[in-house]
Amino acid sequence: MAFFSGLCSIGLLLLAIGYIFHIPTLQLLQNDARISAAVMFLLIGFFHIAKPRKLTYMIEGMLPAPNALVIFTGVLELLLGAGLLFPLTKHHAGWGLIILLIALFPANIRVAVKQLPPPGGLPAKPWYTWSRLLFQPVYILWIWWAIQ
Fold it and tell me: Does the keyword Membrane apply (predicted)?
């Protein structure tokens, strides 16, 4: 839900900046959604690379080389997030992120089922870990709509 809050906050801030400073491209909600997704994936990708040990618990025992996988997904998030910012790459980057979100979904299911704490020190209550699963389709739809 923190990711969703970031998407919405950044998107609304960009929209407001567009109207305050009369920037036509930022007055389009779809552009703001794409840019906010890029910013959030760049941030999350950086976190994956900077502190992979904080996320490896989500896949330990599930997949081999969890530290390397967390770093790899961080690199993908950085590359694909940056790709959303460019007209020539936004569609490929968006579909790459959609595929990545689908691929990472089992790790989020594992967190909820095993009652593990969610990443980032957020509440480890069952209501929160299970509700996080409901946001994955929202992120996928957000990206899909933003790259249209």
Answer: yes
